[in-house]
Amino acid sequence: MAERRHIRELDPYVAQRIAAGEVIDRPQAIIRELLDNSIDAGATKVDIFLEDGGISLIKVIDNGTGMDREDLSICYLSHTTSKISTIDDLYAIRTLGFRGEALASMAACSKLRIVSKSEGNEAYTVSVRDGAAEGPVESGHPNGTTVEIRDLFYSIPGRRKFLKSPQAETAACRKMVVEKALMHPKIQFRFFSQDTLRLFLPENNPVGRIIDAYASQKFDPVFFTRLNEVCGNFTLDLTCSTPSLYRNDRSFIQIFVNNRRIDDFALVQAVQYGYTDYLPGGCFPYCFVSITIDPELVDFNIHPAKREVKLRIGKEIHHQIVETIKQYLYTEQRRSRGETQVSQTTLTFQGEDEPAARKTQEPSPSRWSPSASYAASVRPTYQPTVRKADEEWVSKAREIFSDEERPSYPVTEAASASDDFIYHGQVFGVFLVVEKDETLYLIDQHAAHERVIYEELKSQVAPQPLLVPIPFEVTDDVADYIENQLSAFKSQGIILEYSGGSWQLTALPNYARTLEDEIITFIQQEVGSPEEITRKLFATISCRRAVKEGDVLDDHTARDLIRKILALEVPRCPHGRPVWSEITREELYRAVKRLV
Ligand code: ADP
Ligand code: MG
């Protein structure tokens, strides 16, 4: 039995340090909070300096409104904020900060110095160390604020041990600068590490800002389009890529709500759905989604880093993202095919600084069915009439022809089954020959089966806890990768937890039950994003289970497979390869120079 201990009140400075750990876990969090403050203060220029990944020094200088003596003397205390005063204000917030905890947390876990000057006042400095403040004392500074954080976590050595290498921390900080900068292209940002300019983002338009921020990707602006929709109580601003620009992970599908980057898998998926018919499986677009929403309808106060939100109208937003993208792609495709009626579309192609957003018109379902329109536009304009076997003719033919003379064409089967296709059998040991709507399909049975299994697996990603968690070793890099991808893993049903000094696999989707080792190996080797890992798992399973080339399928199995595969919206195997090849009657006729 443990010895019973008496309860005592924590020393406020100890309590402060504990609370600080929630807001500030690494230099990146400080960058996030300081940039939020500079942006909230209306700065147009912000400089960020790091030394040793922010562990020795973080300094942010802005030209915002600054603080006067009185504000400066309390700004570093707990629960001091100029942004809200009542609980109701919390739901009307238009600023990035509101908890009044950031500077206080920094004061508790580092050596803090703030110099600030507001218009018409003198500049003052306060320094806080070990919970004790010095100042404000008069000093020199232009309008604006400088915040300096030295010796991060000197007061919480345990926390210090969790810091990564200076390079990793610098990279994380840089990422945060980019994240903030994307939503504020009118603000100039400069990011210095060890006194070297690492990132310069001059004032720009939104697309220009993306191109500057991801200079190493060498984006060409022609591949990006800005879309804007005003819908009742929210506005969507999308900067998205044409289908000719894509990548094999979701890292460039980024969601922002009221200028804060959030992790919201459902909205990332909405973007993917929008692109479904235009990108092969496993390919993902570049899409920056900025949602501006009435503060009443969103609650950021559920996550210390404000990385998650509660959206009261999440479904509507989801729907609108899908539709906006689909309509853009549909229009874009017709435009690139030279069809001129495109100009009638309800879509706006916004010029960079074109002002007012337009109201979305009621989408009419028929015009909005992209898969149908896409299919129609890639096929020849020739419209086949659906050909059904004439039962009367078949039975007459039966009577007239003797057994040998009866046409071998199995129309009777097709007519008797409720299927809308005719299955002609298998060729080359791998293709199922199918006739449907005046088109001949040669379906790759292995790829088709893989795809069908894949669809089934996809619906089973709910995590199932393991009875015994499986701990595994990781290097620093991999630990970093896991941390960054934690919520993405979660969305794939793979739950990883840090406990007892190591990472552990604690839950898995049912389908992956026998694949724990593979999953851990994939993670340890950082084979890619969690989505890629899932895709690899799916591909492994479906490839194992799927019928192979050379397998002879009985009629029933073949028909079942054909039925399922023809019902798919995107006929591609999980690796992105098409599942079938098709030839229309017209093409066949042409091939033999027969009159259509
Ligand atoms: P919050 O941002 O939640 O209000 P902070 O602890 O981040 O809390 O900041 C406390 C207050 O200090 C802010 O409300 C603001 O009035 C002031 N402040 C902080 N940083 C700046 C800055 N860069 N420029 C002007 N005022 C600032
Ligand atoms: Mg703040």
User: What's the oligomerization state?
Assistant: single chain
Distance between the termini: 92 Å
The overall pLDDT, averaged over residues, is 80
Beta-strand residue percentage: 15-25%
Helix residue percentage = 25-40%
* Count of discrete alpha- or pi-helical segments spanning 4 or more residues: 18
Which residues form runs of ≥5 with pLDDT under 50?
340-394, 396-416
Could you walk me through the main structural features you see in this protein, from its secondary elements to its overall organization?
Helix 2 runs parallel beside helix 6, helix 8 runs parallel beside helix 9 and helix 9 packs parallel to helix 10. The relative contact order is 0.08. The longest helix has 23 residues. The strands form five sheets. The protein has an eight-stranded mixed β-sheet. It has a five-stranded mixed β-sheet with strand order 9-10-13-11-12. The chain is 34% helix and 23% strand. The protein contains 18 helices and 22 strands. With 596 residues, the chain is an alpha+beta fold. The chain starts with 11 loop residues before the first helix and ends in a 5-residue tail after the last helix. Strand 16 and strand 17 form a beta hairpin. Adenosine-5'-diphosphate binds next to helix 2 and helix 4.
